[in-house]
Amino acid sequence: MFDRSSFSIWTVIKSCVGKDLTKFSIPVIWNEPLSFIQRLAEQFEYSDLLDQAANYHSEQTEERLHLITAFLISNMSANLERISKPFNPILGETYELQVKDGEDNVKFHYVAEQVSHHPPISVYYCKGKQWILTSTVQPKVKFHGTSVEAIPDGCWILKIKKSAPKGSNLTVETTNGTLKHSNSSGSFHSCNDESSTQEQVEQDSEYDVYTCYSPSLTVHNVIFGKLWCEFHGQIDIHDHTNGTRAVVQLKSAYSWFTTSKHDLYKFDGYMSKGTTKLSAFHGNYGHCYYRINDLNDYTTPHSRNNTSSKKCDIGGHNVLWMNNSSLTPSPCDVNLYKSSRLVWYRNLRMTQDELKDRSRYYYFTHFTYCLNQEIEESTTIKLPRTDSRFRQDVRQLELGNLELSSAEKHRLEEKQRQQHRNSRHMSSSDTSTVVIQSTVGWRPLWFDLVPNIYSSNKDEQMWKFNGNYFKRNFDKCPDLF
């Protein structure tokens, strides 16, 4: 990671107040060596939480929802130290990732595509053993004077098999135990072997369906002071099969007059069916998720009968602090209730030497390091030429060649502009229903635009994976890089 002390982000964004920053070119010095559709794959670092959720039957709604909500919280943990911007994906760019736990055990298979340029829309399909997660992300990034707000504006659709797999026997310890700690580790592979069978898109009748919309992220102190960021707002996770939902309230540490460390990265919430609350939870979304087994602890939080003198004591390098300057931060300051039980905590799995060097490597985790690994010569024929790993602007930045990366980024942007001059865009009045088609008939290859049957808005559409990617006929892939 390069020293940015002699570079001012203000010179770049001072003319962008109130505008969408996704439409502006940012100097490479402010980028990190990942494309945005690669960074989206980071959400699956703790995919074990979804595997655990699938080990419960459909009727075990609360247990499933706790693990699903913890997975959503874990998605946020990798973002809080990351103040660098990923590279904008090029229209038609793809990214594929397969993670294995052992030689033959596939943990999940991820495929993403950039389906629109203006507005930028990224979509992905990720399949585990018993679950499928798809998402559409249409990011809007706006500068508000002293802060930058990133609004993902996209739908998240999770499908989990209704019946737990045979032999699963996951239980929750409710005294002094915890749910199984989740961390995703395994070997990374770019794609399936040639001999693999094609993956199939299953019918919805086999699955319970959960949906939500991602929260907004704000980066503070973009002009003066130390950069820091936080998520904010409310997240509603809807269980379309059983009629339950989880409501997550993300607390903000920032106001016009003060910044409170006490609320930094904190969240709490509950699960309900109709007007009846079923369960509750709380924690620090940069660090931990606790289930509250006694609902009275959530509804009457200041009662002496339910409060505990304990704080979350996992501590160590897993915890984030806004203004901390030491190598090992203080322990987490989440106040625990007597019935608080740990479900998930962030585990960087790094040595002290690796922790010391994290700032030099964009604060990547081990999982993130692997996302842009070099493609071996013997495997290049298995990936489309549109895969993000073939982007030389990203690769050169990863290798520390700032000038080469900047030159390559400029070349790709000019090439893309030339392609857009020769294309026409067809869109409805609602930008979420954009369909892009060039003069030669180009359309997204791996995702189709269909009605969003899970939305209360009948006019809303979503991008659905069509399964053609796994046929591995990449002859029609455009020449992007």
From TrEMBL:
Composition bias type Basic and acidic residues, residue spans: 408-417
GO MF term list: sterol binding
Assigned GO CC terms: cytosol; perinuclear endoplasmic reticulum; plasma membrane
Recorded superkingdom: Eukaryota
InterPro entries tied to this protein: OSBP_sf (IPR037239), Oxysterol-bd (IPR000648)
SUPFAM superfamilies in alphabetical order: Oxysterol-binding protein-like (SSF144000)
Region spans: Disordered: 175-197, 408-432
Protein known as: Oxysterol-binding protein
